[in-house]
Design a protein that fits this description.
The protein is mainly alpha-helical. The protein has eleven helices and two strands. Helices cover 77% and strands 1% of the residues. The N and C termini lie far apart (52 Å).
Length: 337
């Protein structure tokens, strides 16, 4: 289907067949993960470049709206991962596709079984945080306003991609493809087909480990807990700032290796390329009717992936010094004034 309207209407008319719903859920969950990835990489980079902004970002994540979003994010990641395994396994063994309906139900079941204890543990962190009588929560209006720059940035990226596509179309109009060009294009798509399945398998232990540490064992609410042990280290977050949390984690050395920086870089590289290539497939699917829009969406995905990789890598090789932690502490004190 090349029309978003057709996707929605035909999905609702498909009588609930599990194959169609698995396809739709895989796309929706993937889009949700890519959206969060974009926000998360940009926000986390602020711990190095703009400590005061990172303090505000974490405070926004600790509001009810984003608390609900956190549960949705975990659900998206778990379902997308399990369904990705199903797709990869059946593509490796095509004869097993006759069992796809049963496998799709197994994916749903495994997702529910996994999410029940995970959500219970996460909800424990939520209750502890919101039951604190001295806890101050940012107002809803501030939360919405804080996300407007991201919305504007995404809209600007889409417009820029289409404009750039138009310029490219004028300078170098598309020529009819010969058989050789089609073969080269097919080889490229085969590469990306293989990459999506291989990277999906490699991502699994990294992303599940990250979710366990940052959303279950400790979670976003403990990032700002003073004198709390930073997950994955033996260091205490003395100031109770998110900036010191990141600093202690990234500065952990095992021998000469900054293990959590390497871990986060592997996660950044694999998930960003995997996620934006998946986004490319979705966007070009719904813009196939227009060469201008289709090309523009490809540019948006390439530029988005490059920006996140450069920004995330820059933060990972950067330094969070005492000055940054001091700025974060001052920002925490002034957050609710």
């Amino acid at each position: 289907m090349t029309s978003l309207v057709l996707t929605l209407t035909e999905t609702l008319r498909y009588k609930g067949a599990i194959g169609q719903w698995s396809w739709v859920l895989h796309r929706i969950s993937g889009l949700g993960v890519v959206l969060f990835l974009t926000l998360h990489v940009i926000d986390t980079s602020w711990s190095v470049f703009y400590p005061d902004l990172y303090v505000k970002a974490i405070a926004v994540y600790q509001t009810p709206l984003f608390t609900i979003g956190e549960f949705g994010l975990v659900a998206c990641v778990v379902y997308h991962a399990f369904n990705g395994i199903r797709i990869a396994v059946m593509d490796f063994k095509p004869v097993w596709w006759r069992h796809q309906q049963k496998a799709a139900w197994w994916v749903l079941g495994a997702t529910v079984v996994t999410l029940i204890p995970v959500f219970l543990l996460m909800f424990g962190h939520v209750l502890k945080f919101y039951q604190d009588p001295e806890r101050q929560i940012l107002p809803f209006s501030f939360v919405i306003e804080s996300q407007l720059p991201f919305a504007v940035g995404i809209a600007a990226a889409l417009v820029a991609g289409v404009l750039f596509s138009g310029v490219v179309g004028l300078i170098a109009p598309a020529k009819p493809k010969d058989k050789k060009a089609k073969a080269q294009g097919s080889r490229l798509e085969r590469f990306w087909w293989s990459y999506m399945r291989l990277s999906g398998v490699l991502i699994l232990p990294l992303v599940f480990g990250h979710l366990a540490m940052m959303h279950v064992v400790q979670g976003v609410f403990d990032i700002t807990a003073q004198n709390f042990t930073v997950v994955g280290t033996q260091a205490l977050n003395d100031t109770g700032t998110a900036v010191e949390f990141v600093a202690e984690r990234w500065n952990l050395l095992i021998g000469p290796l900054a293990v959590w920086r390497l871990y986060d870089f592997a996660l950044l590289a694999l998930v960003t390329v995997h996620g934006f290539n998946g986004l490319r497939l979705v966007l070009t699917d719904y813009t196939a009717f227009s060469p201008l829009l289709r090309r523009g969406m490809m540019y948006v995905c390439v530029i988005g992936a490059v920006v996140l990789l450069v920004l995330g890598t820059g933060a990972l090789i950067g330094t969070i010094d005492e000055t940054a932690i001091k700025l974060a502490t001052e920002a925490m004190e002034n957050l609710h004034k």
